[in-house]
């Protein structure tokens, strides 16, 4: 079994001004066309999803994420995967600087000064955490739709597992390296992610693919983070620098690490080594060495032909395969099989939850049986007021509710609705609200 992903980074929706609007829109459409053509030419049977390593937006505004959502829908449609098969982590451009309050700015500066210990002090307080996360207001709803929630307690931004062979799986772990970003030029080198994120799990039969936006050198705690990545991860992918590169190292005996620096799908400027780029990544179990085989197909913009083609600068050739030694595969296969089986049972049990339809309506039927798609539309496409209205419609909130909900509470209420057999009614409400485009100001709906 193999897993193939289209990997893009630094798309910067919303950065376009003047003539760049036409150029960048064309590049984004050419990228979609190129992926589809490459898939057919290379005989890729299946694309399992899209990986985006940050800077989806340019200034963290909902309007930018709305346009990004449509583009991602077009991209997933072109390669034949589900709309929800998208993995995202935040970048510095995905924060909304207008939402950084004076109190939040003070905490950020204090964390820069005090380091990991000071950051942990703020993360230990629920009120302080909400202030820190307010700058991700629109990103959080966007990412939640793809089931890549920013953990409100300061934890990781992505935690998703995919099986590649019997008893062998990959866990995609995403860091929020923008946690302390203020959107300033001097952020790099001052950032922190803290122990709540970088203490990576080590699980028998499971190897880690770590995703983040910033290179480790941007972090104050880069030495601590590097120790965990070097000793516990097989692949590390990051963006931000806009220059693609690939490196293989052996940081621990018997374990290799592949580090991929993503180029920018749409950098703010081109020339001087910067170009429009993306990658296609395929992960496959290597039975001969009980390791991980990875193929990278880098693509870049051909300015003369005004289209994407093979990027031979990164690898010296149009594609290359790497075989990584994987101690967790090699030494813990039996325990891994038990762990994977338990996880499968849990997922199947969750998906088999009994649902009791509230009404018989054509609206929402296409998403009523698909929880992933329902979650995507609920968080990504509805305003805060519309989400409250949908929860009122199915009886999770009372009709008198007018108080704005925190993002964390919204996720808990959505999960409660699904556990309570209200999926059909919620799907109907979401479909109607999406179609109407109704927005109620002030966070309340009646």
Derived from helix and strand composition plus strand pairing, the structural class reads alpha/beta
* Average pLDDT for all residues: 86
Q: How many β-strand stretches?
A: 13
User: Unreliable segments (pLDDT under 50, ≥5 consecutive)?
Assistant: 333-361, 438-446
List keywords for this structure.
single chain; 446 residues; alpha/beta; seven-stranded mixed sheet; six-stranded mixed sheet; globular; disordered C terminus
Describe this structure in words.
This protein starts with a strand and ends in a 10-residue tail after the last helix. The protein is 39% helix and 20% strand. The protein is an alpha/beta fold and 446 residues long. Helix 1 (20-41) packs parallel to helix 2, helix 3 crosses helix 4 (126-133) and helix 5 runs antiparallel to helix 12. The strands form two sheets. Strands 1, 2, 3, 10, 11, 12 and 13 form a seven-stranded mixed beta sheet that branches. Strands 4-5-6-7-9-8 form a six-stranded mixed beta sheet. The chain has helices at residues 20-41, 62-79, 102-123, 126-133, 137-145, 195-198, 222-232, 312-315, 327-331, 333-351, 365-368, 371-381, 384-393, 407-419, 423-436, and strands at 2-8, 49-53, 86-89, 158-165, 168-174, 206-211, 233-238, 245-252, 255-261, 277-286, 291-302, 307-310, 320-324. The protein is globular.
């Amino acid at each position: 079994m193999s897993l193939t992903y289209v990997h893009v980074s630094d798309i910067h929706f919303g950065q376009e001004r003047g003539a760049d609007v036409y150029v960048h829109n064309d590049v984004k459409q050419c990228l979609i066309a190129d992926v589809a053509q490459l898939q057919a030419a290379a005989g890729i049977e299946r694309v399992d999803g899209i990986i985006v390593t940050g800077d989806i937006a340019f200034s963290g505004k909902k309007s930018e994420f709305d346009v990004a959502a449509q583009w991602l829908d077009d991209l997933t449609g072109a390669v034949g995967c589900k709309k929800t098969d998208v993995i995202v982590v935040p970048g510095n451009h995905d924060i909304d600087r207008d939402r950084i309050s004076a109190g939040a700015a003070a905490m950020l500066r204090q964390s820069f000064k005090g380091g990991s210990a000071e950051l942990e002090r703020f993360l230990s307080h629920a009120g302080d955490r909400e202030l820190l996360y307010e700058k991700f207001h629109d990103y959080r709803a966007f990412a939640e739709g793809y089931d890549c929630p920013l953990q409100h307690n300061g934890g990781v931004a992505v935690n998703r597992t995919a099986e590649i062979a019997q008893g062998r799986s990959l866990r995609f772990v995403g860091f929020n390296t923008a946690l302390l970003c203020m959107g300033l030029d001097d952020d790099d080198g001052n950032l922190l992610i803290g122990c709540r994120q970088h203490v990576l799990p080590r699980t028998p039969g499971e190897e880690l693919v770590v995703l983040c936006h910033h290179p480790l050198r941007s972090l104050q705690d880069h030495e601590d983070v590097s120790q965990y990545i070097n000793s516990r991860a097989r692949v590390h992918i990051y963006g931000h620098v806009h220059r693609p590169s690939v490196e293989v190292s052996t940081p621990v005996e018997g374990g290799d690490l592949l580090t991929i620096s993503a180029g920018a799908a749409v950098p703010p400027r081109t020339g001087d080594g910067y170009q429009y780029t993306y990658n296609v990544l395929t992960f496959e179990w290597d039975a001969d060495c009980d390791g991980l085989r990875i193929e990278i197909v880098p693509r870049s913009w051909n300015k003369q032909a005004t289209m994407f083609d093979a990027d031979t600068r990164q690898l010296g050739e149009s594609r290359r395969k790497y075989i990584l030694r994987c101690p967790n595969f090699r030494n813990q296969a039996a325990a891994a099989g038990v762990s994977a089986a338990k996880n499968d049972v849990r997922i199947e049990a969750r998906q088999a939850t009994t649902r009791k339809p509230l009404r018989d309506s054509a609206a929402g039927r296409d998403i009523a049986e698909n929880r992933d798609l329902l979650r995507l539309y609920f968080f990504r496409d509805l305003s805060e007021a519309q989400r409250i209205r949908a929860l009122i419609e199915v009886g999770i909130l009372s009709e008198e509710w007018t108080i704005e909900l925190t993002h964390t509470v919204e996720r808990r209420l959505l999960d409660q609705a699904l556990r309570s057999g209200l999926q059909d009614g919620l799907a109907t409400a979401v479909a109607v609200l999406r179609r109407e485009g109704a927005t109620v100001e002030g966070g309340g709906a009646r």
